[in-house]
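Morning F.,

Quick status update on the modeling queue. The single chain you submitted on Monday has been processed. Sequence for confirmation:
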Amino acid sequence: MVAVSISIDVPNLADGIRFYGNGLGFRKTAEPASGVVVLRAGNLEICLLEKAAGTTPSPETTEKRRYARHWTPIHLDFHVDNLKAALAKVLKAGAKKELLFENSEHGSAAFCSDPFGHGFCILERKAQQ
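Structure tokens below.
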């Protein structure tokens, strides 16, 4: 059996907890080590890792961590019943809306980034007909 967890680097744990708590409804469930917190919302658990900007993420690269908007081929999708309400909540918490795709038949989507430059989407669930 495979279990999946999601870890997100942030430059400041308090800011990360505030954004993911206020914007997406996550609550802190554990702090297993200094600079690490576990958050949960529904059936999803994420781990925030405090990592300073400019540090090297791996000895195999010369890249440095940066928290300006950046592209990565992996992102999180948050499925919600009310896109407009969820989008307003994450924007108030510090997210940036990059694109809004409206589709009344299948559900709309908002392409966003968190305050740390990580992309994510909010996808509206539509009731099955």
